[in-house]
Amino acid sequence: MQVSVETTSALERQMTITVPAERIENDVNKRVQHTARTTRLDGFRPGKVPLKVVKQRYGASIRQDVIGEVIQQSFYEAVQQEKILPAGGPQIDFKNDKDGEDFQFTATFEVYPEIALADYSAVTIEKQSSEVKDEDLEKMIDTLRKQQADWSEVESDAKDGDRLKLDFEGFIDGEAFEGGKAEAMDLVLGSNSMIPGFEDGLVGAKAGDEVEVNASFPEEYHAENLKGKAAVFKVKVLTVSTPHLPELNEELFAKFGLEATDLETFKVEVRSNMEREMKNALKMKLKDQVFTQLVDINAIEVPSSLVDSEIENLRKQAVQRFGGGADIDPSMLPKEMFEEQAKRRVTVGLLVQEVIKANEIKADDERVRSTVEEMASTYQDPKEVIDWYYSNDEMLNQVKGLVLEDQAVDSLLASANVTEVAVAYEDAIKPAQQ
């Protein structure tokens, strides 16, 4: 087998592979002999079909099968021989496929980039810390009560905290705009779920009122044609309802899956959940900051095949996240929606792998165990979950991958300039600004 490699771009390689005709013919003859022993044809006893007849009838398809296998085998042998690591599957083009002559094809593929990590010691990282204070706990308990509130319709003026059922239509410069109309929509005043000015304009309204509300779309609004625009909404208030908060008792506690039977135990469990949520949020924001800086100081080209593969993953995740079933084809979602995110994910993945390699990081067994235990702690029977992870290599390897990533972050932080900043609980749980 002859192999030649041409560099066609920074990451693309074109490999020309020539396979001797003898190898093809020998494999074809072996397959023909096997087919002759197993095939059944009218007029011939089983296993006695002449090779010539088998070759006439099945020779072309047998040769195509052989060539397919030879391509796979020879490509694998060639990249091993040339010490090349493909970043994705090759595009195959035949150059010579004539019977009796050496078989020749080209394989075009991408390789992983060579990465020389930049010095991370000049990077400055802001590490946030926080705590759950008593007032944070009381606010959370109030929020939980509101989630379970009973609503009753009232004739009084609407105020913050009341729920309104509305019909409305929005206009910009006197023209109705797409997406600005709704019927029988529920809105809790003070929830800040609508654009600035909308909810304020409904304070004091009663059931049956028809109100014109002036509101403005933010400059950073997602719809390009609405950014910064002033709008007038014609609103009809169908009903106004006020909430009745439930008592803090065992019945309420059970609705949140908590085992508490008294208020103090309930508070302990809620605080524990808040602290776990806060810890994870702070960890994710720190990791995001570390990775952002890592990407900023390491400009690398990434294989488009890896980006395309990640786009497919993001498409599937998007369909699942929004409740799509088998009737929605993820490929219908525009590629452009995910391209930037996919490229960043691939870039981060390649750089983190290089950090792990450069620092010879191995997954710490104790850290893997504590991570599994922490994940299992939210289940009713933690031991059963822990045993399941340790009996499932695939799931355990996923945890090891997370631990390796965390250890890579620790390694980068050890060389960076880290400043610690205390923040309020509400700021701590906010996601990182993208």
TrEMBL record:
One of its GO terms (molecular function) is ribosome binding. One of its GO terms (cellular component) is cytoplasm. InterPro entries: PPIase_dom_sf, PPIase_FKBP_dom, Trig_fac, Trigger_fac_C, Trigger_fac_C_sf, Trigger_fac_ribosome-bd_bac, Trigger_fac_ribosome-bd_sf, Trigger_fact/SurA_dom_sf. Keywords: Cell cycle, Cell division, Chaperone, Cytoplasm, Isomerase, Rotamase. Its EC number is 5.2.1.8. It catalyses: [protein]-peptidylproline (omega=180) = [protein]-peptidylproline (omega=0). Consists of 3 domains; the N-terminus binds the ribosome, the middle domain has PPIase activity, while the C-terminus has intrinsic chaperone activity on its own. PANTHER family: TRIGGER FACTOR CHAPERONE AND PEPTIDYL-PROLYL CIS/TRANS ISOMERASE (PTHR30560), TRIGGER FACTOR-LIKE PROTEIN TIG, CHLOROPLASTIC (PTHR30560:SF3). This is Trigger factor. It comes from Neptunomonas antarctica. The lineage of its organism: Bacteria, Pseudomonadati, Pseudomonadota, Gammaproteobacteria, Oceanospirillales. The gene is tig.
